[in-house]
Amino acid sequence: MQAYFMTISALLAFAANSILCRLALGAQVIDAASFTTVRILSGAMMLAILLLLKAKFRPSTSNIKGMARGKGSWSGALALFVYALGFSYAYVSLETGIGALILFGMVQFTIIAVEVSRGKRFRLPEWLGATVAFVGFVYLVLPTLSTPSFIGAVQMAIAGMAWGVYTLVGKGSTKPLEDTAYNFVRAVPMALIWFAFALPEWRLSASGIWLAVLSGTLASGIGYALWYGALKFIMPFQASVLQLSVPVIAAVGGIIWAGETLEQRLVVSALMILGGVFLVLMSNKLAPQRN
């Protein structure tokens, strides 16, 4: 139940993050550099508060001084920063559908490439499930696809590769809250340096800042800590396929809270994506182990 809770909560956070980012950058109420900086700063502050509360109420298992002993990693922090920055800049020029397609496509490509380079041999049910899920995903976003901006496509591709790396780094996490907190703390100076260099493009508003704060505290800070926790229970390849369900979650949220219409396309694509995810998750039981 813990694995289900963390996985579903993390995926919900990813969907919320996409919506918040698109609301802020699509409406141009804040620039990409400022959004990224506020997002990372607020995420770091939220996670620091959670660590302090954990140390206060669970002193036997939490030690804030332990942060100096290598919680998180610079590689994880760099991947986090590159992802957040590329994601923000890409959505300035990309539509939601094509942006999601490039992002999740590159996440899958990165994780599969790294796993194959490590000697991983995927089973037929895994390949089949991933293919069905990805085809369902493409079918879902197909009506919104358009010729993308070249720069935006490159920025989103870089963001996707960085998120794939961040996911792979998190697979070894035994203390997800601490690791995520220190990844965010390490990413803060990177964001501030970029923020200073981006002075000519600053565009700030109260609504834009609040959207960035919500993205940083809830959808990113807490969401990514839950994701690192969930990665203890799932394989990297399974994690990459699971993320294809994020647009479906976002679409369902639009139906519930925004009064959008339930269309046949969403039902068919959701069945394909969820069926493919199920096949990948059940692959250990559907095929013998290969060395």
UniProtKB/TrEMBL annotation:
The record's section on Pfam families has: EamA
Keyword list, A-Z:
Membrane, Transmembrane, Transmembrane helix
Q: Chief localization class?
A: membrane
Q: Can you give the residue ranges of the EamA domain?
A: 151-281
Q: How does it sit in the membrane?
A: Multi-pass membrane protein
Q: Where found, per UniProt? A: Membrane
InterPro entries, A to Z: AA-Vitamin_Transporters, EamA_dom, EmrE-like
Q: Does the keyword DNA repair apply?
A: no
- Asked whether the keyword Transmembrane is assigned, the reply is yes
Task: Give the domain of life.
Answer: Bacteria
Q: What is this protein called?
A: DMT family transporter
Q: Which organism is it from?
A: Rhodanobacter aciditrophus
Listed transmembrane segments: 36-53, 74-92, 98-117, 124-142, 148-169, 181-197, 209-229, 241-259, 265-282
